[in-house]
Design brief:
The structure holds 2 protein chains of 2 kinds. By secondary structure, chain A is of the alpha+beta class. Chain A has 5 helices and 5 strands, in the order ββαβββαααα. In chain A, α2 packs across α5. The longest helix of chain A has 29 residues. Chain B has 3 domains: about 180 residues, Aldehyde Oxidoreductase, domain 4, CATH 3.30.365.10; about 240 residues, Aldehyde oxidase/xanthine dehydrogenase, molybdopterin binding domain (Aldehyde Oxidoreductase, domain 4, 2-Layer Sandwich), CATH 3.30.365; about 140 residues, Aldehyde Oxidoreductase, domain 4 (2-Layer Sandwich). In chain B, α9 packs parallel to α16, α12 runs parallel beside α13 and α15 packs across α16. Chain B is globular and about 85 Å long. The chains are: A alpha+beta, B alpha+beta.
Chain lengths: ~170, ~700
């Protein structure tokens, strides 16, 4: 099986039905991806496959041949969400944290509140630290929104707007 | 009485929001949980469990499993002829070179059972014609508690409420399941174990395996939740150690989600039939309650009743009822959420008999105020902050299917601790290592250990190396009963102060002064009042010489306290067409002694509240009434709150430094569910006297209300 793991090409000799979760943890020795329930309900094993969040406990390795897989290790500690989770106490016991962060990464830079709630609905936290998790994600996404706003303000003030302004219409729904 | 160990009056770090020391490890996947431990040549263990709720083991045939590919050890956990008392009761186990092969081999173990009569619920166990299932009886009647003249109490009552109230069984659902990795070196055992009690686990391994405790080394650096269910190796830990011994190789045995629901504890149910009296001006007069509950197969189910409020005359009896289900374990404030719910719903019903405001009624019947009994103040503060004056009387008059209401409840907890020891090393390069055999179960213990040392040495948190979670470290207790902070923090403070004094003794001659004139602040050691006359921490430590400062210390009186009180307000909306309840707002007021880390203290309160929303609205362990099988041993049909179920939550922590450190891991989870249930009652006018507030029960209560009331 061949796939790209955190930017590096990997060839894995494993049973095609072996769970992606186990391939990551055992064959690739990346234990940042956690197992909570083993049946796709808790989201602790969330990884990104071609940018989309999946429960790696439900994915046989055969399905990721040729795909791009990103685990928590692939963010290399440099993603703004990782910093925000430390800053705002988004990680308590920390076992849901890798999956939670990757699910949040998949939301993109400026999710709405509803997108955030729906996008993270499949990630359970048993310390029930959702308030701090929400604040952690919101700190990053609202900064992203603010920065974009600042730039637009600056551009508007200086009159040097080059791009056509994007409207919300047609973007959502 | 202030002494050299007393908490600083103007702390630099204590009481501020400090991010977790181990946050970076947790957000990058570097943190190694038990489940992440891999040892060279490691095998995987798998247990065989009883599929029946009650049976006699007729035979156990291990031969096929022994011959299965990759299998290195097989053992029977029970003897032929023994009884299994619940679905999931351990029977046998295997270890093999892969998880899949261990699972295959476990399926090859042939156990024949003779099914015996079982109870799937308390009604079956309490039936007059119930068969004798448990040796010594299917129930155990506790002593009667009685205060005052009950007959006279009821005679004084203008109104009497009589009803039956109940809470259900929920399980801990730790996201990291129970389990361990065991490795032997001769007769010495090393166990990486997901536990709330690292030193006590070593003790239990030693006792169960018949080896000296000195031969056992247990390690727990990170764990994915315990909530009261992880205080020792349990059967899976002992089996893991035995498999490792038999196989002569390290074994990892982590439970799966189903095993977790069946055999690693739960919060017992509670039911009470209560009669209570109230005078026309709102004074409680009498309480007469018969309660029962089940903690599973042969376990207790006690809880405080009545809760908090002052009934001048009262009588209470309690009966433990045994059913064929996994045994209960402590779960976040054991007993209190049950006692709180049973009492607080009754309180709102009593208040309504005389049309009195529930807050005013509660305040009128509180025990005397004390530093650990601040309810009257919290009711007043909370009512103002929450907008209680906008609450309508029972039954939202708003037209349409969505009804909104408010509810309130109070709680208490202990949170005292003692008996921790600690060790502090200060090296000549300025390095500091703080050691304590406590553990961080996700609450932030690692961080607050470092904070107390950093505060004492006048250094940033980053200057402290914290070592916890290892049985070779100085003694500390298990993390239960919210005792950890109150037990470990005084030990860290005392030991750090003593280490600093030893350093002062080395530094004083160089500064031409006596040690008692020195202070450590802002990364420097200097003469009190004249900061210029001093040395940087690093330069001061150069005077230590070759032998590091190495100090042992232990918990001392006066740095921690006991007893907390709290009040919570809830607002909920109910769709009376679907029965769906949504919690919209929670206000939690909590006292907590000296706050060490505001960030982690608040996290405990937020988490406690949301966990109780789970208790109120979602979680429910359901046993099939015929087969005794758990029908939802997963995370799909066993409902848990997610991000979108979380309401607006406001936390008001009452920092009381003069009381010392008091744990608050548990109290914030006690009163939320009853406040929500009271809000639902206020919204709909229908009383739901049992949890969870699932839609079908809401609808049934509304139907009953329409048909002539629930009283």
């Amino acid at each position: 099986m061949r796939f790209t793991l955190n930017g590096t090409f990997r060839r894995i000799d494993a049973h095609p039905l072996k769970r992606l979760l186990d391939v990551l943890r055992e064959d690739c020795a990346l234990t940042g991806t956690k197992e909570g329930c083993g049946e796709g309900e808790c989201g602790a094993c969330t990884v990104l496959v071609d940018g989309a969040p999946v429960n790696s406990c439900l994915v046989p390795i055969a399905q990721i041949n040729g795909a791009r897989v990103t685990t928590i290790e692939g963010l290399r500690g440099r993603h703004p969400l990782q910093h925000a989770f430390v800053e705002h106490g988004g990680a308590q016991c920390g076992i849901c944290t890798p999956g939670m962060i990757l699910a949040a990464v998949a939301l993109g830079k400026k999710p709405t509140l509803d997108q955030m709630k729906v996008g993270l609905a499949g990630n359970l936290c048993r310390c029930t630290g959702y308030s701090a998790i929400y604040r952690s994600i919101d700190a990053v996404t609202s900064t992203a929104r603010r920065n974009r706003g600042d730039r637009k303000d600056r551009e508007a003030r200086s009159g040097s707007r080059t791009k056509k302004p994007r409207t919300r219409a047609g973007v959502t729904r | 009485m202030a002494n050299k160990y007393s908490w600083p009056e103007k702390p630099a770090l204590l009481g501020t929001s400090v991010k977790r020391l181990d946050g970076p490890d947790k957000v990058t996947g570097r943190a190694k949980y038990t489940y992440d431990i891999n040892r060279p040549g490691m095998l995987y263990g798998k247990m065989v469990r009883s599929p029946l709720p009650h049976a006699r083991v007729v035979s156990i045939d291990l031969s096929a499993a022994e011959k299965a590919p990759g299998v290195k050890a097989v053992l029977a956990h029970v003897a032929v002829g023994a009884q299994v008392m619940y679905q999931g009761d351990p029977v046998a186990a295997v270890a093999a070179d892969t998880e899949e092969r261990a699972l295959d081999a476990a399926r090859m173990i042939r156990v024949r059972y003779e099914a015996l009569p079982h109870f799937a619920n308390v009604e079956q166990a309490m039936a007059t014609d119930a068969p004798a299932v448990f040796p010594g009886g299917n129930t155990r009647q506790g002593a009667t508690e009685e205060t005052g003249d009950l007959v006279a109490g009821f005679a004084k009552a203008a109104h009497i409420v009589e009803a039956t109230y109940a809470t259900h069984v929920i399980t801990h659902v730790c996201l990291e399941t129970h389990g361990c990795v065991c490795e032997w070196d001769g007769d010495k055992l090393t166990a990486w174990i997901s536990t709330q009690a690292v030193i006590q686990s070593a003790q239990q391994f030693a006792q169960a395996l018949g080896i000296p405790q000195a031969n056992v080394h247990t390690i727990m650096q990170y764990m994915g939740g315990g909530f009261g269910s992880k205080f020792g190796p349990d059967s899976q830990g002992i089996i893991c150690a035995k498999l490792a011994k038999l196989a002569k190789a390290p074994v990892k045995l982590m439970l799966d989600r189903k095993e977790e629901h069946l055999d690693t504890g739960n919060r017992p149910s509670a039911t009470a039939h209560i009669r209570a009296g109230i005078t026309a001006d709102g004074m409680l007069t009498a309480f007469d309650g018969q309660s029962w509950g089940t903690g599973g197969a042969g376990a207790t189910s006690g809880f405080p009743l009545p809760y908090i409020y002052n009934f001048p005359t009262r009588k209470r009896t309690h009966k433990d009822v045994y059913i064929n289900a996994g045994q209960q374990r402590a779960m976040r404030a054991p007993g209190h959420p049950q006692g709180c719910f049973l009492t607080e719903i009754l309180m709102d019903e009593l208040a309504d008999t005389i049309k009195m405001d529930p807050v005013a009624f509660r305040v009128k019947n509180l025990p005397p105020a004390a530093p650990n009994a601040m309810w009257a103040e919290y009711f007043a503060r909370g009512a103002k902050a929450f907008g209680w004056d906008k609450r309508h009387a029972t039954g939202d008059p708003t037209p349409g299917p969505i009804k909104t209401g408010m509810g309130v409840s109070a709680h208490r907890w202990g949170g005292a601790g003692q008996g921790s020891q600690a060790h502090v090393d200060i090296m000549s390069d300025g390095g500091i290592v703080v050691k304590c055999g406590t553990q961080d179960i996700g609450t932030g213990t690692r961080t607050i250990v470092g904070m107390v040392a950093a505060e004492t040495f006048g250094l940033p948190l980053s200057a402290i190396k914290v070592e916890i979670g290892d049985s070779l470290l100085p003694f500390s207790g298990g993390s239960g009963g919210s005792t950890t902070a109150a037990s470990a923090m005084p030990a860290i403070r005392v030991t750090s102060v003593d280490a600093l004094e030893a350093l002062f003794a080395k530094v004083a001659p160089a500064l031409g002064t006596a040690p008692e004139n020195l202070v450590a602040e802002g990364g420097r050691i200097f003469i009190k009042g004249t900061p210029a006359k001093g040395l940087s921490w690093k330069d001061a430590c150069k005077l230590i010489g070759t032998e590091p400062i190495s100090v042992n210390g232990k918990w001392a009186q006066g740095l921690s306290g006991s007893g907390t009180s709290g009040v919570q307000f809830a607002e909920a909306s109910v769709d009376i067409e679907t029965g769906i309840v949504r919690v919209t707002r929670i206000l939690a007021i909590q006292d907590c002694g000296l706050i060490v880390d505001k960030l982690t203290a608040e996290s405990q309160a937020y988490g406690g509240v949301i966990a109780a929303i789970n208790f109120a609205l979602f979680e429910d362990r359901i046993l099939d009434r015929v087969t005794g099988q758990m029908v939802n041993p997963n995370m799909e049909m066993y409902l848990l709150a997610g991000m979108s179920d979380v309401p607006k939550i406001d936390i008001m922590l009452n920092n009381m430094p003069e009381r010392g450190v008091i744990g608050i891991g548990e109290p914030p989870t006690v009163s939320t569910a009853s406040a929500i249930a009271n809000a639902v009652r206020n919204a709909t006018g229908a009383t739901i006297r049992s949890l969870p507030l699932h839609p079908h029960k809401v609808l049934a209560a509304l139907e009953q209300e329409k048909a002539g009331g629930t009283n």
